[in-house]
């Protein structure tokens, strides 16, 4: 009987001790969270460690482990650089204040190499370029981070985006394109956008050249065949009417669809048809004019879409 009573007392004492340890672990975790909020990061790290040692399987364990790993990965300089970074990052007003960002950027020159300094470069670059509208000041920290090959890829990709935007805002479009292509592996999307813009510029020049040749052929035809060759026939006027009506019907069906591309194509198509007809009346070869006419219509279609519905060009791989 005495043995059973002793065992019960021991079990009860053990239960009380376990409950006390649980309460102490909960208190340690709560204190660590509070210390992190107040940017007392060394104390927060000690608290998370103590809480995990006391109750490694507690409900807060995953969160405590995640916060501990995050802080330890940024612990250079005994957490002072991280505290300086978080003081600005957590305050939207400070994170958008050029003066605060400049001060933090100057302070980062004293930070030891590591993740905190890299994140500081990104924060100041993003704050000075997109938010404060100071691309000339946002570009240097972005370039520093971009050139640091020890930095995580995600940070360097973000820095590339800021650097490209800064160069474009400064009017250096060629430099922005060259930078994007030099770091294509970091962000293929940015480089592809410049590739697309260059491709569209070449197509625009080609389309204008084809239309210019068509215009010269039409002018030559008028000079040789007379003004009567410029009068549109019934077929040409019918095409113009049908194209314009189709544009109106499509717009009424869906107001998001602009009738402008269709109207531009209709009007331009009429002029192309008259130019080709005039050149034909003057004796130009049929096959050559057919090729020129098809090319001119395609050029018109491209230019009309590019001027009014450029997004649709992507559906055709352009």
How is this fold's topology laid out?
Blueprint: H1 2-37, H2 41-54, H3 61-73, H4 80-89, H5 92-95, H6 98-108, H7 115-131, H8 135-147, H9 153-169, H10 173-182, H11 188-225, H12 234-253, H13 260-281, H14 286-308
Helix pairs in contact: 1-2, 2-3, 4-6, 4-7, 6-7, 7-8, 7-9, 8-9, 9-10, 11-13, 11-14, 12-13, 13-14
Question: Can you offer a commentary on this structure?
Answer:
The protein contains 14 helices and no strands. The radius of gyration is 35 Å and the shape is elongated. With 318 residues, the protein is an all-alpha fold. The termini are far apart. α1 (2-37) runs antiparallel to α2, α7 (115-131) runs antiparallel to α8 and α9 (153-169) packs antiparallel against α10 (173-182). It folds into two domains: 78-186; 192-316, no CATH class. Residues 11-21 have low confidence and may be disordered.
In short:
The chain is mostly helical and 318 residues long.
- The tally of strands reads 0
Amount of helix:
over 70%
Major sheet description? none
Q: What is the mean predicted local confidence, pLDDT?
A: 81
> Residue ranges: pLDDT <50 for 5 or more in a row?
11-21
Morphology: elongated
Structural class: mainly alpha
C-alpha Rg (nearest Å): 35 Å
Q: Give the termini separation.
A: 91 Å
């Amino acid at each position: 009987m005495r043995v059973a009573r002793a065992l019960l007392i021991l079990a009860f004492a053990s239960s009380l001790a376990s409950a006390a340890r649980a309460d102490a672990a909960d208190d340690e975790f709560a204190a660590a969270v509070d210390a992190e909020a107040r940017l007392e990061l060394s104390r927060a790290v000690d608290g998370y460690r103590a809480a995990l040692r006391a109750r490694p399987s507690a409900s807060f364990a995953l969160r405590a482990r995640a916060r501990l790993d995050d802080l330890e990965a940024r612990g250079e300089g005994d957490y002072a650089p991280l505290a300086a970074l978080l003081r600005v990052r957590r305050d939207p007003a400070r994170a958008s204040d050029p003066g605060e960002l400049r001060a933090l950027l100057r302070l980062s020159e004293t930070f030891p190499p590591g993740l905190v300094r890299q994140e500081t470069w990104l924060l100041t670059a993003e704050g000075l370029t997109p938010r404060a509208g100071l691309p000339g000041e946002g570009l240097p920290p972005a370039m520093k981070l971009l050139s640091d090959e020890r930095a995580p890829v995600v940070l360097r990709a973000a820095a590339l985006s800021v650097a490209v935007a800064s160069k474009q805002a400064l009017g250096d479009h060629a430099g922005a394109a060259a930078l994007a292509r030099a770091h294509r592996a970091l962000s293929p999307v940015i480089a592809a956008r410049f590739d697309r813009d260059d491709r569209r510029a070449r197509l625009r020049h080609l389309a204008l050249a084809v239309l210019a040749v068509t215009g010269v052929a039409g002018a030559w035809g008028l000079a040789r065949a007379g003004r009567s060759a410029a009068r549109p026939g019934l077929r040409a006027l019918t095409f113009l009417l049908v194209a314009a009506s189709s544009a109106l019907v499509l717009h009424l069906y869906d107001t998001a669809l602009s009738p402008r591309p269709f109207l531009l194509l209709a009007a331009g198509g009429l002029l192309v048809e008259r130019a080709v007809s005039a050149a034909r009346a003057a004796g130009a070869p049929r096959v050559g004019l057919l090729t020129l006419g098809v090319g001119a219509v395609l050029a018109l279609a491209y230019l009309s879409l590019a001027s009014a519905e450029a997004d649709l060009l992507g559906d055709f791989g352009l």
